[in-house]
Amino acid sequence: MKHTLLAAAAAALVLGLGPVAAQDIQDRVIRFGYGLNEDSVQGRAVAFFAEEVDRLSGGKMKVKGFGGASLGSDVQMQAALAGGAQEMMVGATATLVGTVKEFGVWDLPFLFATSVEADAVLDGPIGQKLIGMLPDRDLVGLVYWENGFRNITNNRGPITTAADLEGLKLRVMQNPVYLEVFTALGANAVPMPFSELFTALETGAVDGQENPSTTILSSKFFEVQDYLTITNHVYSPWIMMVSKSWWDTLSADEQKVLMDAAIASRDFERLDTRAASAKALDELKAAGMQIVEMPPEEIAKMRETAQPIIDTAIDAFGRPLYDEVMAELAKLR
Ligand code: KDG
Q1: How many whole angstroms separate alpha carbon 82 and alpha carbon 86?
Q2: Would you give per-residue pLDDT tens digits along the chain (333 residues)?
Q3: Ligand 1: residue whose CA is nearest its atom 7
Q4: Residue of the nearest CA to atom 4 in ligand 1?
Q5: Ligand 1 site residues, Cβ closer than 6 angstroms
Q6: CA 306, CA 55: separation in Å to the nearest integer?
Q7: C-alpha distances out from residue 332 to 109, 252, 323, 329, Å
Q8: What spacing in Å lies between the alpha carbon of 91 and ligand 1's midpoint?
Q9: Atom 12, ligand 1: which residue's CA is nearest?
Q10: Ligand 1 atom 8: residue of nearest CA
């Protein structure tokens, strides 16, 4: 080993590459689970992360992506990471609220108005403060990715008013705010893991669902859904996480490789999802979906109906945190 390092250092000096820092990096295989398809924003970003980790570790750290919820749902993977049975995952912050209640702030309807706001707050001190709450639950958060602004699809008919949600059997994420907001709007809200959603739509077990347009496209929901209504009713983040028991076995060099690759993958994913989102509506229209926008006055009715549920959620995770987020947003607006 010593001779190898000396040879590398000599070669680097000859080539003018400067001293080669000896890195404490072992051969490792890292199982990285995610819920969307391999050919999705999530899948492409995991592949990018894997390439970055391979490059930064000199080929020693190998990330194996497992898409399509093949390692389980978001909630199941969170448990696997906490138990040390899986190394990494990316999933919705909305499904973390049962583990760290403060993560409920990110999925409040109508919290963020733009991706610029979301990036600034999530990557800023408040986003990092919440990430700092994860190690107590045996999880390590690295970065936030963008899932995106969520829209409603269904098979019953065009939804152009808040009242049109009445009686709609709507799948929602496993999060109390989503459940209670759509229930208050008159829908028959059904919490369900993402991995069961396509079949539920295909069989008619549910009439509709809500997700960003990029997910509606990459998950081929257009094959089983006729109508799309643009509501942008909530900005939904993803979070990349590591098993803390495994993270603690890594050297500082190995942790830096993962962190540096995570930051690069965050920037890649946000560019990719925003480019994909700009094209998704045209592609969904070409695939046969009827697309309408919810008029502003109807969005206002949705916000009014949602407000009591939002207030209850804020009290549950703590109004000071909400006020801190709103103060940050006020600086940006
Ligand atoms: O595993 C898939 C989830 O990470 C993500 O897509 C969550 O938006 C989500 C949904 O509707 O479940």
Answers
A1: 8
A2: 555 555 555 554 444 444 445 689 999 999 999 999 999 999 999 999 999 999 999 999 999 999 999 999 999 999 999 999 999 999 999 999 999 999 999 999 999 999 999 999 999 999 999 999 999 999 999 999 999 999 999 999 999 999 999 999 999 999 999 999 999 999 999 999 999 999 999 999 999 999 999 999 999 999 999 999 999 999 999 999 999 999 999 999 999 999 999 999 999 999 999 999 999 999 999 999 999 999 999 999 999 999 999 999 999 999 999 999 999 999 999
A3: 92
A4: 91
A5: 35-36, 69, 74, 91-92, 147, 173, 194, 211, 215, 236, 238
A6: 46
A7: 19, 35, 14, 5
A8: 6
A9: 194
A10: 211
- Domains for the chain: give ranges and CATH numbers: 26-332 (3.40.190.170)
Out of 173, 198, 234, mutate this one to test ligand 1's pocket (max ligand atoms within 8 Å of CB): namely 173
Ligand 1 atom closest to the Cα of residue 91 is: 4
pTM for the structure as a whole? 0.92
Which residue matches tokens 């509606």?
Answer: 216
Q: Cα–Cα distance between 5 and 329 in angstroms, integer?
A: 50
Q: Are 87 and 243 in contact (CB under 8 A)?
A: yes
